[in-house]
Design a protein that fits this description.
With 301 residues, the protein is of the alpha/beta class. It is built from eleven helices and ten strands. The chain starts with 21 loop residues before the first strand and ends with a helix.
Length: 301
């Protein structure tokens, strides 16, 4: 588990026992991850840091033994894991918002219960970067993608540093920013995404979350050149293994939510129209979504 230190305080010596400030809240949402949640928890507990961090797990009324596995870890590591159990099931987005709302850290590190981290100093590296670079609101890193048999299906051969601004993400440029790699500043401008009604209608929620954070802060995303997590593709995944037609329909829905709820210049509007024509227009026509196609085009003209 992480090495926790007691920070010095300028208060009266009688107050020296006050708990140190929590630097990072590890926020994990999970549902029916009995096979995988132990790997996620192990990867959180192995973190080596010179600061305090908390682990919050939002368990969304799983039908399997996910909650029992988490409880076992809580018994083995008393005080290290906080279980936020929802009954009945409230869905992934509301689960995420609830866990983030309950976080106390200066930064939030996100990881779903079917993914896991691979570097013991992941949190330390990301905190060090964000502390030194206030112009960034998010710090990510490279990620290996594996299947349900733990076989590698994607790994960038030569990882490099990257950065993305609001315009980049709006136009679909967000390489190596998967949710299991993401650390974000825990500030009102970020948390207020949970007050936006449209957010609960999203499917690729992590992309809209990143876009909102950039839009509301004017800051950027930085990607460290280190591979420090595994993203898992499996049949129970919310997004990764669904039918291709359903996935495409959801992408069209997210695209329309994006153009309705975010600001963009005339030049960016033209680029968004190109994206729609190139990626989604024929899909809408083939699925007899003529009105949707016309409304999207009119919104971008």
């Amino acid at each position: 588990m992480g090495r926790l230190i007691s920070f010095r305080t300028k208060c009266n010596p009688l107050m020296m026992s006050t708990r140190p400030e929590i630097m990072v809240s590890v926020c994990c949402i999970t549902y029916n991850h009995e096979q995988y949640i132990a790997g996620a928890l192990d990867s959180f507990l192995m973190q080596q840091t010179n600061f305090e961090f908390e682990i919050l797990v939002g368990e969304d009324c799983s039908k399997d033994e996910t909650k029992s596995v988490i409880q076992g870890y809580m018994d083995r590591y008393p005080g290290r894991i906080r279980l936020i159990h929802h009954e009945p099931n409230i869905g992934a987005i509301r689960n995420q918002v609830d866990v983030i709302t309950k976080s106390k850290g200066k930064y939030i590190a996100l990881c779903d219960g079917d993914d896991f981290w691979t570097d013991q100093r992941k949190l330390q590296k990301q905190v060090d970067f964000l502390e030194a670079n206030p112009e960034y609101v998010i710090c990510c890193h490279h990620t290996k993608v594996i299947n349900e048999h733990d076989e590698t299906v994607y790994l960038k051969e030569n990882p490099v540093s990257m950065e993305f601004d609001y315009q980049d993400v709006l136009l679909g440029k967000r390489e190596e920013t998967r949710i299991c790699s993401l650390m974000i500043r825990n500030i009102d401008a970020v948390r207020s995404v949970g007050q936006q009604p449209w957010y609960f209608d999203t499917y690729g929620t992590d992309t809209l979350f990143k876009l909102y954070a950039l839009a509301s802060t004017g800051k950027k995303i930085f990607v460290l050149p280190d591979v420090m997590a595994c993203y898992r593709l499996h049949t129970g995944g919310i997004w990764s293994m669904i039918d291709s037609r359903i996935r495409k329909r959801r992408m069209v829905s997210d695209f329309n939510l994006t153009i309705k709820n975010f600001k963009y210049s005339g030049l960016m509007k033209k680029e968004l129209l190109k994206i729609y024509i190139r990626q989604y227009f024929l899909f809408d026509l083939r699925n007899r979504e003529i009105n949707n196609a016309m409304n999207t085009i009119m919104n971008l003209l």
